[in-house]
Amino acid sequence: MTRRKRSYRSLASLQRDNAVCRACVEAGYPLESLPVFEGHAGQTAWILGQAPGIVEGEQGRPWRGRAGQTLRRWLDMDEERFYATFYCSSVTRCYPGRHPSGRGDRPPTPRELELCRFWLEWELRLLRPRLIVPVGGLAIKRLLGISRLTGCIGSKLELGDAVAVPLPHPSGASGWLNSFENRKRLEEALALLVAEL
Ligand code: SF4
After folding, report:
1. pLDDT at 31
2. Looking at ligand 1, which residue's alpha carbon is closest to its atom 4?
């Protein structure tokens, strides 16, 4: 049963309510996992993905599948350091299931994005991260309002009191990283990120 308070005073209290959120299911969307996120107050770096995949949904932990392994390889971090460093959540937090075409996962609908915005905004307000890493086009658009990866990967942007360093999605599904220039942009982004950490 979905519970949403008018305001939250602690991240732990927000997480308790977020963990049992079924707002999208109540609105008729066929989600296939409970909300997936991980982190605690005091973490100053926030990674925001698009939505959990099937592995993350099954394990109830973000970035457990192949994309997560690639992301840790990019960052040169083992699992322990990765989860200790980053508060991990996503634009929508439940596995949306397979795409009806059978190719990849179903992208969250605009209504699901809107329903999940509540958790994202409160999380940002309570966590107050110093470094924000939106991963993939959807997270970048949601957080920074930028539609093209090429215009922002390799850049450092200000977002309130925080610095944002966007990354492409490590699943490689889009093919964006097939280009040499874009791989150079990724290298620049990772160098910025390491410097910020
Ligand atoms: S995707 Fe977000 S709003 Fe929708 S049920 Fe999951 S946690 Fe709730």
Report:
1. 93
2. 24
